[in-house]
């Protein structure tokens, strides 16, 4: 009898009943709402982001690992499992949830004033307001310390000038957490995108993450009141801590794309016949499937371990780098290998393989490229920073 890839090591025994329930609910949501439509969304280069945000909000998926302000207060493991199931549908769909909850909402939850939290978080948790996280600039991706966006004082107000790009959710968002350089260092600001001087341009013609809204935000002397600044966000460590929060979700999410590819390849190999027998009956095919299943188990165990550390409050940034580096890299390798099992059919939109592979090319480099994570790990091992 055949079994599902993640059943190979009976890994469900490591999960609580609550975690299993969260997984089941999100898996069903993806089956009902995402899978029937996502190939068309990807082909069209658009997705009903606002509609999806409302549905995700009603299920408590937005900021689900945060506490208070309408957030679910779920465990890190439960959040990770939700990310896995969402990305099994599509990386762009998981990105919507990650950016909303682990970047925009987390920044306000962790560094905002009580007034900012009350103003934004309940509506964001409900999916009534969509947020984005504006750190990356046209000339500064992996080097955020060199950002050129500026915030200057004018009386009691702040005035922001600069450009942010590759900002997930920006074209549909009502609010952005914008990071800018001030005389006292990097600060975070809550910026309503309807503010005078803000222009949002959608980035089109993407070959990856096509079921996701991505944009550029231009800030032309945008005047904000004094209380727009996140009071506890001072220095570059603040946005980097938000990225660590989001990268944790990626550790799990990438496994969902890999699992979906492996499920597809297994089903195909059992039914597709060549030379008088199913592809699954050839040793080379079984070797591919076995190697991919082993890597999927290893990635899952790594994510589970990091999740337990997160729930214990002991997870460190370099440990998240280990998870992001390994799991995205292996997920992309699995997607590519699964494509070979389907041959020419593997490039058809009828199957999810090349869509997942294309998406994972973006996941490999956003929120820290593989090279950056290698350097984070290398610095921890050697005690020597080698970023420059």
TrEMBL record:
Record Pfam families: Acyl-CoA_dh_1, Acyl-CoA_dh_M, Acyl-CoA_dh_N
Coiled-coil segments: none
Domain Acyl-CoA dehydrogenase/oxidase C-terminal residues, every copy: 234-381
InterPro entries: Acyl-CoA_Oxase/DH_mid-dom, Acyl-CoA_Oxase/DH_mid-dom_sf, AcylCo_DH-like_C, AcylCo_DH/oxidase_C, AcylCoA_DH/ox_N, AcylCoA_DH/ox_N_sf, AcylCoA_DH/oxidase_NM_dom_sf, Glutaryl-CoA_DH_mitochondrial
Record carries keyword Cell membrane: no
Family membership noted in the UniProt record: Belongs to the acyl-CoA dehydrogenase family.
UniProt name for this protein: Glutaryl-CoA dehydrogenase
Lineage: Bacteria, Bacillati, Actinomycetota, Actinomycetes, Micromonosporales
